[in-house]
Design goal:
The protein contains six helices and eight strands; from the N terminus they run E-E-H-E-H-E-H-E-H-E-E-H-H-E. By secondary structure, it is an alpha/beta fold.
């Protein structure tokens, strides 16, 4: 283990429940599919919240975007089932138009309500402060995860909600420029890959894979990336995050 890696925290205790908040269908599987699969295998209930409808996730200029959005919900539910198995929890969709997500008060209230209703011990989401991020939905979804926790934890935010406030124990942000927490996902790499491959509508656009050979190359790219993340920490595969526990 490198000297810098010693400063990192490692492997949270398996929470009772976790809520992963993604901008689009498949973002959760890319960002934290490994740790969700690991926790689910150890008894954690895994919930998903997807902020947009994913309707722009294709290179086909003539695509039926309503049909694509419906298909992506089916794919996301299947991916969540593959990750969570018997401990797969709820899959919620806010259904904001892909590419048009905002992080205003209305959207913050929607996320806070889900956190209050599902009562996750750990929330996971995009790091909204990643430098040079191009996709606005990822930035706004990250802000909604962060700001939704603040709103969900305090009783005087959104007092119209029909459920009491809830404070999670920890927040894990993926895609972080300055990660400081590592999760060993060596035992669940294939589960993560299996969940990613539930998103069949994304094979061409996101995964650059339209035949069996290209799908295998995609799988190899993910395996290689997880191995690279794990190497400084002496594990064969890892996912890394910014950990925030002062919630």
């Amino acid at each position: 283990m490198s000297q810098a890696a010693h400063a990192w925290s490692h492997d949270l205790a398996t929470p009772v429940s976790a809520l992963a908040i993604g901008a689009h269908p498949d973002d959760v599987e890319f960002g934290c599919g490994g740790v969700l699969a690991k926790w689910a295998a150890d008894g954690c209930t895994i919930h998903h919240l997807v902020c947009t409808d994913g309707s722009k996730g294709t290179w086909d200029v003539d695509a039926d975007v309503a049909a694509l959005a419906a298909r992506r919900q089916v794919e996301q539910r299947e991916a969540a089932a593959r990750l969570g198995g018997a401990n797969a929890g709820e899959v919620r969709f806010l259904e904001h138009v892909d590419g048009e997500l905002d992080s205003g008060l209305t959207e913050r209230g929607q996320v806070a309500l889900v956190i209050r209703e599902l009562k996750p011990s750990v929330v996971l989401g995009h790091d909204p402060w990643k430098r040079y991020r191009l996709h606005p939905d990822h930035r706004h979804a990250g802000l909604l995860a962060v700001e939704g926790i603040v709103a969900a934890r305090d009783p005087h935010f959104f007092k119209e909600h029909p459920v009491p406030h809830h404070r999670p124990d920890a927040l894990l942000l993926w895609e972080a420029d300055e990660p400081d927490h590592v999760e060993d996902v060596s035992a669940v790499v294939e589960t993560k890959l299996n969940a990613l491959l539930a998103h069949e509508s994304q094979f061409e656009s996101t995964m650059k894979a339209v035949d069996d050979a290209e799908i295998e190359r995609f799988r190899d790219r993910i395996r290689t990336r997880l191995a690279e993340l794990g190497e400084p920490h002496d594990v064969t595969a890892a996912e890394v995050f910014k950990l925030i526990t002062s919630l």
